[in-house]
Amino acid sequence: MTSIPAQRSSAPSSLTQAGASHSGCCPSCGSNRVTALAMTLTDGTPVRFSSCHECEHRTWTHEGDELQFADVIARATKTKV
Ligand SMILES: [Zn+2]
After folding, report:
1. How far is the CA of 4 from the centre of ligand 1 (A)?
2. Contact at 8 Å (CB) between 61 and 47?
3. Where are the domains of the chain?
4. Ligand 1 centroid, distance to 37 Cα (angstroms)
5. pLDDT tens digit sequence for 28-78
């Protein structure tokens, strides 16, 4: 006869969903169907590219700051000296 310990494990199974890592909401339509991926521009600037599946709004952010599309293009086409 095997003695099974009746003691319940104190595993932290109650994880809060508040801290779940999510891509965030679309700043345009508020949808949470946003895909975010990290990429590096031609000039070496690491940016995060977010694309909304609902309205196709696209956003580039660098260290939390939103980049203007023209700025991204300017950086992407920047010629290294
Ligand atoms: Zn959207």
Report:
1. 53
2. yes
3. 24-76
4. 16
5. 999 999 999 999 988 899 999 999 999 999 999 998 899 998 988 888 887
Q: Which tokens in the block code for residue 29?
A: 């339509």
Cα distances from 53 to residues 5, 24, 28, 40, in angstroms, run: 50, 12, 11, 22
CA 77 to chain centre: 24
Q: What angle do CA 69, 72, 76 make, to 5 degrees?
A: 140
**Structural contact between residues 67 and 61, judged by C-beta atoms closer than 8 angstroms:** yes
Q: How far is it, in rounded angstroms, from Cα 2 to Cα 18?
A: 41
User: Residue 38: CA atoms inside 13 Å, Cβ hemisphere, count?
Assistant: 6
